[in-house]
Structure formats: C-alpha cells, structure tokens
Specification:
- With 126 residues, the chain is mostly helical.
- The protein is rod-shaped and about 155 Å long.
Length: 126
C-alpha cells in the first residue's frame, strides 16, 4: 500500500505538472490567437488603405486623361485656326499686292495726264 501511495503521489505530481504545462500552453495559444487576430485586423486595414489608394490613383489617372484629351482637342483647334489665319493672311497679302499694282498703274496713268496740261499752261502762260 505504501508503494501504491508513492506511485499515486508521483502520478499526482506528474499530473499537476502536466496540468501546469497545459495551462501555460493554453495561455500561449490564446496569446498567439490574439496576436493573429490583431495581425489579421491590421492586414485588413492595410488592404483597405491600399484599395483606397488604388481607387484614388485610378481617379487621378482618369482626370489626367480627360485633361490630356481636352488639351489635345484645344491644340488641334488652335492649329486649325492658325492654318485658317495663315490662309487668310496670304489671301489678304495677295489682295494688297494687287491693289498696290492697280494703284501704281492708275498713278502712272494720272501723272502723265497731269504733266501734259501743266506743261501746256506754262507754255501758254509765258
């Protein structure tokens, strides 16, 4: 019986040790689970922040594309207007040259006609 008591005492001590180790393991497990839950929460927050950044970047890229499209349309319009202005300037330059030539021709006709009567008057007036 003494042997049984000693064995029982030893078994009880071992059982207490195993229970203590189990309690420590359960505490570590709970701690690890809490850390994992915290990490999952942080990961979800970071994923959400990254998603928001992607949305903002996409929206900014869309705005930039719209601005670029508008700028290109304005550039094309300005080029067309500049081309029309050059054509109009060339047309007006041609008209001006034609008017200058006509004016020179008219002056050439008028000046000899004026000098003849003037010369006649001088001769007749002397």
């Amino acid at each position: 019986m003494v042997v049984r008591l000693c064995v029982w005492k030893a078994t009880a001590d071992q059982l207490d040790q195993v229970r203590a180790q189990l309690a420590k393991a359960e505490a570590r497990s709970e701690s690890t689970e809490a850390q994992a839950a915290e990490l999952r929460t942080r990961l979800a927050d970071q994923e959400q922040a990254a998603q928001e950044q992607r949305k903002e970047a996409a929206a900014e890229a869309h705005r930039m594309a719209e601005r670029m499209t508008t700028a290109l349309a304005e550039r094309d319009q300005a080029r067309q207007e500049a081309s029309k202005a050059r054509e109009e300037a060339a047309r007006l330059a041609g008209q001006l040259q034609a008017h200058q030539e006509q004016t020179a021709a008219l002056l050439a006709r008028i000046n000899p006609a004026e000098s003849k009567p003037a010369g006649t008057r001088k001769k007749g007036g002397e």
